[in-house]
Amino acid sequence: MTTKARTNVREAAMDLLVTIEKNQSYSNLLLNHAINNNQISQKDIGLLTELTYGTLQRRMALDFFLKPYIKDHKKLADWIIHLLRLTVYQMVYLDRIPDRAAIYEAVEIAKKRGHKGIAGLVNGVLRSIQREGLPSLNEVSDPIERLSLETSHPLWLVGRWVSQFGYDKTKEMCEINLTAPMQIARVNLTKISRDECAQVLEEEGFEIEKSPIIPEAIRSLKGNLATSIAFKYGMFTIQDESSMLAAYALGAEKNEFVLDACAAPGGKSTHIAEKMQNTGEVISVDLHQHKVRLINENARRLGLSNIKTNVSDSRLLQEKFKQETFHRILLDAPCSGLGVMRRKPDMKYTKTEKDLERLSSIQQSLLTSVAPLLKKGGTLVYSTCTVDKEENEHTVKTFLENNPEFEGDLSFKNRMPEAIQPLITGFDLQIFPQDFGSDGFYIAALKRKV
Ligand SMILES: C[S@@+](CC[C@H](N)C(=O)[O-])C[C@H]1O[C@@H](n2cnc3c(N)ncnc32)[C@H](O)[C@@H]1O
């Protein structure tokens, strides 16, 4: 890698970090945009991703390290702060980059983007850190505050998780959230077997491993599966293993009539439709036209003709469908997404406790509104990609208290993949990211009494 290319990558990472923070926009979307716009070479994509995600992931710890060396944080332009964070990230967490190289590159960027004085300041701060070392996190005596800083999770969230799940589980979760997630795909069994799909991808140059958890899932050890020819031919869907469990819990059978009430972009609808072997009908509803278009595109790519989409507010579906219409209903509710922080690290700093309260009331009203559409004896699955008792257990408990014609479905364990069954004791399941390395996810299976 030439020095010039490296400078460009760091500068691109710095610009990305500025934009992500300013616009509070999604890091994954902006990263792809930056790769295409800056014509980042294939071999530099890895470094750009690592620098951007790593600096975002570790932001609070990096600020803790920088604090004694910056007199007035507020006086510095945003890009200088991001440049300093980015460089300290390399110095602390990336062994393969020598400190002097990281500092040299930062000073060059500061010269180019600012003036001599700024370059001197950047050089001074970084050289002092190199000479005097980092402040120790052991100085923080409160264990919750220390964990929050060490793993860069907001204090309110760490405190909330500790009170809900205990310190040890929270620590494991915060630590795994700092690691890069694997890319997982669900093979479209209506088109091809898992073995055949793995072989096709290996012939394309990917390195594939079979999921030990989900019988139709594969893991990509090398390469972005979305760029494969097999993807274009609809042989698989990119989806996390935890998300695949929702269709298992629902257990839809051939020729049934199924509602997916919050369906876009269609990850679970298409899984359900595949499990029904392209028979029956899946009604896939979402609030937004542009998102519903994605469900249609995915269904087309996968060759599934048993999905019918509908742009609606699912709280109003009783105006469109008669009571007791569906054999099964999935409500994969809008949620705080605390289970997918590894994929969207910027989210850690934008979510607030208020968001969780607001969501809990939306989830409650969605559940109450779709429930009457279920046939007697039918199955209702409630799921979220979050780890929070208010949005999960509490939402379901309140629903059951107010709707005595529903009960927990204890038989759902038998429908789940074998590897998951030992985790299930009742009618619901909270998956933590540290359980299998998959996303944090919650599923509750309910039944309408006959
Ligand atoms: C967790 S995402 C669904 C992911 C989807 N099930 C999948 O597997 O691809 C939640 C979805 O709910 C939709 N949504 C939010 N409020 C809604 C409402 N009142 N009615 C219908 N859809 C809603 C959002 O637009 C979002 O696409």
UniProtKB/TrEMBL annotation:
Residues annotated as catalytic: 385
Family, per entry: Belongs to the class I-like SAM-binding methyltransferase superfamily. RsmB/NOP family.
Subcellular location: Cytoplasm
Keywords annotated in UniProt: Cytoplasm, Methyltransferase, RNA-binding, rRNA processing, S-adenosyl-L-methionine, Transferase
SUPFAM superfamilies, sorted: NusB-like, S-adenosyl-L-methionine-dependent methyltransferases
NCBIfam families: PRK14902.1, rsmB
Enzyme Commission designation: 2.1.1.176
Function recorded in the entry: Specifically methylates the cytosine at position 967 (m5C967) of 16S rRNA.
Catalytic activity: cytidine(967) in 16S rRNA + S-adenosyl-L-methionine = 5-methylcytidine(967) in 16S rRNA + S-adenosyl-L-homocysteine + H(+)
Xref: InterPro entries: MeTrfase_RsmB-F_NOP2_cat (IPR049560), MeTrfase_RsmB-F_NOP2_dom (IPR001678), NusB-like_sf (IPR035926), NusB_RsmB_TIM44 (IPR006027), RCMT (IPR023267), rRNA_ssu_MeTfrase_B (IPR004573), RsmB-like_ferredoxin (IPR054728), SAM-dependent_MTases_sf (IPR029063)
Protein residues bound to S-adenosyl-L-methionine: 262-268, 286, 313, 332
Gene3D superfamilies attached to this UniProt entry: NusB-like, Sun protein, domain 3, Vaccinia Virus protein VP39
A GO cellular component annotation in the UniProt record: cytoplasm
Protein name: 16S rRNA (cytosine(967)-C(5))-methyltransferase
Sequence ranges assigned to domain SAM-dependent MTase RsmB/NOP-type in this UniProt record: 173-449
Top-level taxon in the UniProt lineage: Bacteria
Alphabetized GO MF terms: RNA binding; rRNA methyltransferase activity
Enzyme class: transferase
One Pfam match: RsmF-B_ferredox
Gene Ontology process terms (BP): regulation of DNA-templated transcription
